[in-house]
Amino acid sequence: MNDQSAAPSTSPATGSSPGSDADRTAPEDRLVTTLHSLALEDGPLNYTATAGTVVLREEPDGEEYGRGRPYAELFSVSYVATSPGEQPRPVVFAFNGGPGASTVWLHLGLLGPRRVDSGDAGAPAAPPHRLLDNHETILRDADLVVVDAMTTGFSRPAPGQKPARHHGLTADRDLIAAFVIDWLTRNDRWTSEVHLAGESYGTTRASAVAARLLDRYYLAVAGIVLISPVLDFGTIVFSPGNDRPYLHYLPTYAAIAHAHGKHEDRLLQDVVDEAEAFAEQEYPALLAAGLRLDPAQKQEAAARIGALIGVDPDWVERADLRVEHQAFLAELLRDEGLVTGRIDGRFTAPAGDGNAARMETDPSIDQLAPSYTAAINHYLRGELEFSADVVYEIMSGRVHPWSYKDFENRSVEVASDLAHVLRKSPHTRVLVSHGYHDAATPFHASEHVLAQLAIPREDYSERIRVEYYEAGHMMYCHEPSRLELSAHLREFVTGEGGTEDDGEA
């Protein structure tokens, strides 16, 4: 990375007449643009990076011709290639999830021109942490905008506004959609293809934002990238009377057990196929039988489940055949004194309490987050030359409680939003990326939801591409998976790759 030169660019955003008291106190955009070059095999990729906060405005309610008033200051980094090439280039808007997670993970883990050396399961990076050039960056083929949701990163409400108004599915959706429209307008990019890329709850956000952009602004996105998706919370949230998560997590448990040597001499794909077949065919009937299940049948089922997921069948039987994910992660390697990762089940750490019923911490986040934290704070200030007087919130609990008020008495889901977009916009395509060892958003749950979308069968086959990786939620910390996912993203954005949905994991 070289050829950096600071070129501060500040765009005033005032909501009153020049010279007034309100004008002097109104928040303003704070943007810094720097020049960079990335050495690639086929020549240098020259680009600008614009980092900072922009002021978003809204028309006051009840005023026929109300002037826009500031309500949010969102932080983003925009990467725009300056090398000669086909114009206009596509634009990828990316965000993580949480809720409460900044976009540092996709930014420095996968998409940006610089990436963090985080290490991997069994060998997390030790300090001092370092940044590397990302020769697989999506910037080779599309301009990139990474944006932080409210109260994450440097994003904050405008003075006098309260952050809680944005802490909910619908309000967050509207805020990010407004940011996309604002960016396209400021940068004169309305003729560019627009892609949305989200990870985890960011896939919930991406589906909802795509629908909002289409219904409110008549903007049809070209592509939606769903990395470690959750489209229906009812498939993954363990709650009384809801057996769906037990079914959908089982194949992930089996994959994690395989990663820790519980299925010697077997291929991962064979283990996953067996677990999925059981979860789809026999397991639902066993759970539905409840107290009607014969004791011998229950014991036999516990033995089958225990063998699949690598735990004592007696423990499964005591759990009434219903294995909750944090309980499983505490139990799998209990005899070794270890707890297993939730974000990535390949990670382990010593258990603080060998008898704990649930995992007390997530080794995968504990071992990966420090490198991302150090890297983003150095990168923004040292290389992009932007600083702020608040903490860059990598992951913030201050967004909670997160509001799902529009889903009272029903499951929180955006599968209907995704189907809505696909029905209304015939050119929108979807790329779905699953990690086999992801115990946060299990792949089988996503498979199930995608298969139930209210769209024509041919659209499911031809417009949705599904890929799998031998890693976890943030599969890009596993180098082979990072390279594979980067290649799949490139094919998707450029239109060179087809769909892959053969019905198998």
From TrEMBL:
Span list, region Disordered: 1-29
InterPro entries the record matches: AB_hydrolase_fold, Peptidase_S10
Compositional bias of kind Low complexity: 1-20
Keyword Protease assigned: yes
Pfam families: Peptidase_S10
Molecular function as annotated in GO: serine-type carboxypeptidase activity
Keyword flag Cell division: no
GO terms, biological process: proteolysis
Keywords, sorted A to Z: Carboxypeptidase, Hydrolase, Protease
Domain of life, source organism: Bacteria
Protein name: Carboxypeptidase
